[in-house]
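Action item from last meeting closed. Structure (77 res):
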């Protein structure tokens, strides 16, 4: 199952269509994410007009688990 998920991720390309997103978009990313580098969040944020990127220092891939209160605050803002 992990291999299938990896293959799906490897074949999925959305970057070119992100510019068409026209809803308020919040991106939250941990700077210590060892699965998806936080630079990826920066790339995505640049592609979505008017998006907001919140980088959580020293937080990993499961930011909502590691920082549940901060995550809730950001979402409810």
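Sequence:
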């Amino acid at each position: 199952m992990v291999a299938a998920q990896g293959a799906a991720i490897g074949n999925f390309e959305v970057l070119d269509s992100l510019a068409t997103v026209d809803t308020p978009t919040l991106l939250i990313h941990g700077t210590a994410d060892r699965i998806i580098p936080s630079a990826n969040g920066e790339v995505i944020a640049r592609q979505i007009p008017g998006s907001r990127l919140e980088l959580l220092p020293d937080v990993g891939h499961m930011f909502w688990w590691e920082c549940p209160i901060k995550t809730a605050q950001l979402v409810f803002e």
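Note appended to the action item: Helices lie at 2-10, 38-47, 63-66, 68-76.
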